[in-house]
Write a structure and sequence with these properties.
This protein is mainly alpha-helical. It folds into 3 domains: 395 residues, Na+/H+ antiporter like fold; 52 residues, no CATH class; 37 residues. It is 77% helix and 0% strand. It is built from 22 helices and no strands. Helix 2 crosses helix 14. The N terminus is likely disordered. It is a multi-pass membrane protein. This is Sodium/hydrogen exchanger.
């Protein structure tokens, strides 16, 4: 009897475990880390083998990489694991660093100089594309499988009209097109986010509303657009000022300054999204505004840290997004298999044609008042550069499948449109730019004379606009600069340099760069003083 009791005690006695797998607990973190690791290796391979990059841009190559991994995972697990780019991942984690990078490194002068054209393309152009694509799909809806409802078609037309800022950055930065062309296309892709979100919310409200809609419902929808856009801009501006104040107060605790410069713009994005405003506009405006303030508050080492961290994080997120889009393509094409060839062909044709029509008509109207006219070649590149990306896919996957029954068909079509624009339009953009002899952005260092001349031209144009009674882009920029220099910067900056001091600082930086270049070229400091003196005489 005692032996039985002892054996029972031995069986039930707990074991001491020294090694145990915890994969499920860390599955999400490992997944993100794995895909970031894959994209790093892919970037290294793309740089090593330049012949690959001559054929396709990085975005297309990363799409292919994601599709290959998606095919491997499908072959192993079949349809047990449906891997795709989840909307919350994209909008909460991947998109904010890219938008911050865009705003932080954007040339503010070029942006404000073209703000009229950017707003016109973003607002009127997006409304035109949405209406034209929606009406075209509605006219052919009897030929589609399942005959989708009119509201579903207009929802799809709204989201597919959004030019993606991530895709535009990837393609246009590789080609180095001229600054005016880049700012117009990229600025449009940023601002049409607000238009697209408002239109989608309006469409959803119409779908849930009673049939007897009144005119005031449409007026409220129009008012919502201005609230979303202006609200996002105000939130971004507020957090830019807060970033300047905090970096000023933390001048003796420099270790927290770099993280402040990254955290505060992200908070601006989250707060704007939580309030139903445009998060992209908020974080872009915050990045554009804070860079001029933090330069006078943080050390050179911290500034370099902020620059590299933002650029590295943005580049990594761009790469991971396109890898995930490749995975999503396999999920949509192989697993869901909800194809409608007629719907896909009509959507592609409508997106391509109406983009060119909209750009052509709007540019014709803009050129009547623009000082620097947008040429025909630049118009063609702007029309051809309407690349769709993860924004479209994130929006279509955020639709409720219970209310939008044909969501799988819409998501499959969205993936096909993204693949077409990234591979066909993005892949041939470089050759087209060379063939059409598009003016490129020259990589050269500015001179002190150019800086002074640029400032004098801006003030002169602002004065001329004021004399003729016109409140144009130059007048607005001069007014904003004056308020910023006289009232904002003295309060939130430690080292507030007036306009005269900024010229001195620029000259010192220019001479430092020339000295470094001289040593690299000649390997000695002998003769450097004479060389720098000659440069000063030229200036």
């Amino acid at each position: 009897m005692q032996m039985i009791e002892n054996s029972t005690l031995n069986v039930t006695r707990p074991r001491i475990v020294f090694f145990e797998l915890h994969f499920e607990e860390h599955k999400t973190q490992l997944t993100f880390a794995f895909w970031f690791f894959i994209t790093i290796i892919a970037k290294i391979v793309f740089v090593r083998f330049e012949r690959i990059k001559r054929v396709l841009p990085d975005s297309a190559l990363l799409l292919v990489l994601g599709s290959i991994f998606g095919g491997i995972l499908y072959a192993i697990f079949h349809d047990k694991h449906d891997i795709y780019l989840k909307p919350e991942w994209f909008f909460h984690f991947f998109l904010p660093p890219i938008a911050l990078d865009a705003g932080y490194f954007m040339r503010n002068n070029e942006f404000f100089k073209n703000i009229g054209a950017i707003t016109t393309y973003a607002v009127i152009g997006t409304l035109w594309n949405t209406a034209a694509i929606g009406l075209t799909l509605y006219a052919f809806r009897n030929y589609f499988d399942g005959c989708p409802s009119p509201i579903s078609l207009f929802l799809f037309a709204t989201l597919i009209s959004a030019v993606d800022p991530v895709a535009v950055i990837c393609v246009f930065e590789e080609i180095h097109v001229n600054q005016m062309l880049y700012i117009c296309v990229f600025g449009e892709s940023l601002l049409n986010d607000a238009v697209t979100i408002v239109l989608i919310h309006t469409m959803k409200a119409i779908a849930n509303a009673p049939e007897d809609l009144q005119w005031n419902h449409y007026f409220i929808g129009l008012l919502a657009f201005f609230c979303v856009s202006i609200g996002g801009i105000l939130v971004g501006g507020l957090w830019a000022v807060l970033t300047g104040i905090v970096t000023k107060l933390s001048k003796d605790v420099s270790i927290v300054q770099p993280i402040t410069c990254v955290l505060f713009p992200y908070l601006a994005y989250l707060i704007a999204e939580s309030l139903g405003l445009s998060g992209i506009l908020a974080i872009v405006v915050c990045g554009m505004g804070m860079k001029q303030y933090i330069m006078g508050n943080i050390s050179d080492q911290s500034l370099v840290t902020v620059d590299y961290f933002i650029k590295t994080l943005s580049s990594s997120c761009e790469a991971v997004i396109f890898v995930f889009l490749g995975l999503s393509a396999v999920s949509a094409v192989v697993i869901h298999r909800d194809f409608d060839v007629v719907f896909i062909l009509i959507t592609l044709t409508a997106c391509f044609a109406y983009r060119f029509i909209g750009v052509g008509v709007l540019t014709y109207l803009l050129n009547k008042r623009r000082t620097e006219r947008i040429g025909f070649v630049d118009q063609f590149i702007m029309g051809y550069g309407g690349i769709r990306g993860a924004v479209c896919y994130g929006l279509v996957m955020s639709l409720d499948p219970k209310k939008v029954i044909c969501r799988d068909m819409l998501s499959t079509t969205t993936i096909i449109v993204i693949i077409f624009t990234v591979f066909v339009q993005g892949g041939t953009m470089g050759k087209l730019v060379t063939y059409l002899n598009v003016r490129l952005e020259k990589e050269r260092k500015g001179t002190l004379f150019e800086k002074l001349n640029d400032r004098a031209c801006r003030h002169s144009m602002g004065a001329f606009e004021c004399l003729v009674g016109r409140r144009g882009d130059y007048w607005l920029k001069v007014k904003v600069d004056r308020i910023n220099e006289n009232y904002v910067k003295p309060v939130i900056m430690v080292k507030h340099n007036q306009m005269g001091m900024s010229i001195v600082d620029f000259n010192q930086k220019l001479q430092t760069n020339e000295a470094v270049d001289y040593v690299k070229k000649h390997g000695t400091i002998a003769g450097m003083a004479e060389a720098l003196s000659d440069m000063d005489n030229l200036l």
